[in-house]
């Protein structure tokens, strides 16, 4: 005769952020059996997947398909998705900590690094995160027509409308940075709307791209070709676009000792350099569009009075201390649009420890440091933990490290399950909040597929929050 062992009290974990880092943390928590868990993954947006939906370029179908894997984690027993809940506004961090056993911060890096040069705030100059959000259909950049901030629905208060106008009116663009996001921006700027029609871009974004005039994009790197952060696959894709000349100066491909050392030690750098050497050897074809890569070049000033008209450039070298120095050799390029793509940056969340010097939550192996000591119920993972580095898969190992620290603390008795199942639901209901669950996301998903089908596409992104919320409603719900 056997006697069932008594059910153990589950550890209730709230994960703030439904992007890859947060969902990978949920996966790591539910993949183990030593500690019973209940995981709630919260996001301020009505939809999950974070940068997989709103950061990966729409024409990178294979990378965006990672969301299918992420969705399977959200469907696991013991995992729940709560969308359209803003921590810091709807519920404070202190209140959340009182309703669950552990809070795990995974809310990413929502801002961008600045160049710190004159003119970068001129109209026509913007950060890559804003531009990427625009072409990915992020509701922050595509606000509803009438909001508290803009009750009249004026275009001047609509960042999406402003970017669309820039795209339509610009002929030459400068992209500052030599990472994959910079390549994405350059590629979207030169591609035609027809070339992007097989993506899930919002209809209004495609319409703006159909009216664009951009035919030249200058990409600036302050170091040489050996120091780029491109992945070779993405670099090669750029070279396969038709009717495009890729221009690389032969002078930039003459390497000094430091560049040769990098190429000799880094296989990715060596492959990237080989690709760019092949581009440099191509004769000009007179194509209708071109991308010009400038290495050993940094912007020193964005030119213009009431709008961007160009960028002042300075040649650079690596100094004796290993840092990039300017040579004083200046030149200018004309430009109507400048996109800075020099890195994302984490921002502070009210009630969460934050190191402004790094743009990250202070921690040790994922354990949050608060008031000069470890906070017993707070952990962190993803870009807000380590900074905006790596690829999407990097977040998986990062989440595993944080969850390992959490489980170690449970085993040591530093974190104790306190029977808080249902406390978060009661808190939200008491506030009159109705989080969007996974079935609500499935209804949004179905609505996007249906909209895409109506336009002869596989799916079309709903870019406005009001559209997402309308699609999320159960057919029997009260629209009010």
What are its keywords?
480 residues, alpha/beta, disordered N terminus, 6-stranded parallel beta sheet, FAD/NAD(P)-binding domain
Description:
There is one protein chain. With 480 residues, the chain is an alpha/beta fold. The chain folds into two domains: 11-110 and 346-436, Rossmann fold, CATH 3.40.50.720; 111-344, FAD/NAD(P)-binding domain. Helices cover 34% and strands 19% of the residues. The protein is built from 17 helices and 18 strands. It has helices at 20-31, 51-54, 61-64, 66-74, 93-99, 128-136, 159-169, 180-190, 203-210, 232-239, 257-265, 267-281, 383-386, 394-411, 423-430, 438-454, 465-472, and strands spanning 11-16, 37-42, 79-82, 102-105, 111-112, 125-127, 172-176, 216-220, 244-248, 289-294, 297-303, 310-318, 324-334, 337-340, 344-345, 363-364, 367-370, 373-380. A seven-stranded mixed β-sheet has the order 3-2-1-4-18-17-16, with helices on one face. The protein has a six-stranded parallel β-sheet with strand order 6-14-7-8-10-9. α11 (257-265) packs across α12. It starts with 10 loop residues before the first strand and ends in an 8-residue tail after the last helix. The relative contact order is 0.17.
């Amino acid at each position: 005769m056997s006697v069932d062992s008594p059910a153990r009290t589950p550890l209730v974990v709230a994960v703030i952020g439904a992007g890859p880092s947060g969902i990978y943390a949920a996966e790591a928590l539910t993949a183990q059996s030593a500690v019973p868990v209940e995981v709630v993954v919260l996001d301020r947006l009505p939809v999950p997947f974070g940068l997989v939906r709103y950061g990966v370029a729409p024409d990178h179908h294979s990378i965006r398909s990672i969301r299918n894997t992420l969705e399977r984690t959200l469907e696991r027993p013991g995992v729940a998705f709560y969308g359209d809940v803003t921590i810091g506004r709807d519920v404070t961090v202190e209140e959340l900590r009182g309703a669950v056993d552990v809070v795990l911060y995974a809310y990413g890096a929502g801002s961008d690094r600045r160049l710190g040069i004159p003119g970068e705030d001129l109209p026509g100059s913007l950060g890559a995160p804003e531009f990427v959000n625009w072409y990915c259909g992020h509701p922050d950049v595509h606000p509803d027509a009438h909001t508290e901030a803009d009750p009249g629905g004026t275009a001047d208060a609509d960042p999406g409308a402003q970017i669309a106008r820039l795209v339509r009116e610009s002929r030459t663009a400068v992209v500052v940075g030599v990472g994959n996001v910079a390549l994405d921006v350059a590629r979207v700027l030169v591609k035609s709307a027809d070339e992007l029609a097989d993506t899930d871009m919002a209809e209004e974004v495609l319409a703006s791209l159909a009216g664009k005039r951009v035919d030249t994009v200058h990409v600036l790197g302050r170091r040489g070709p050996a120091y780029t952060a491109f992945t070779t696959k993405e670099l090669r894709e750029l070279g396969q676009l038709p009717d495009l000349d890729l221009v690389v100066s032969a002078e930039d491909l003459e390497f000094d000792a430091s560049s040769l050392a990098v190429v000799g030690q880094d296989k990715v750098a060596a492959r990237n350099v080989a690709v760019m050497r092949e581009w440099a050897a191509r004769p000009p074809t007179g194509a209708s569009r071109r991308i010009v890569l400038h290495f050993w070049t940094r912007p020193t000033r964005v030119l213009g009075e009431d709008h961007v008209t160009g960028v002042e450039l300075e040649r650079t070298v690596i100094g004796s201390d290993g840092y990039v120095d300017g040579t004083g050799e200046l030149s200018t390029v004309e430009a109507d649009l400048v996109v800075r793509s020099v890195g994302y940056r984490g921002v502070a969340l009210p009630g969460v420890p934050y190191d402004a010097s790094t743009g990250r939550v202070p921690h040790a192996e994922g354990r949050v440091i608060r008031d000069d000591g470890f906070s017993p119920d707070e952990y962190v993972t993803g870009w807000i933990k380590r900074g905006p580095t790596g690829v999407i898969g990097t977040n998986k190992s990062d989440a595993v490290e944080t969850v390992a620290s959490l489980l170690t603390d449970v085993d040591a008795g530093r974190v104790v399950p306190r029977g808080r199942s249902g406390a978060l639901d009661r808190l939200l209901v008491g506030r009159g909040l109705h989080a969007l669950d996974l079935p609500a996301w499935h209804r949004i998903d179905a609505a996007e597929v249906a909209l895409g089908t109506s336009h002869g596409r596989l799916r079309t992104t709903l870019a406005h929050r009001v559209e997402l919320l309308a699609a999320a409603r159960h057919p029997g719900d009260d629209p009010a």
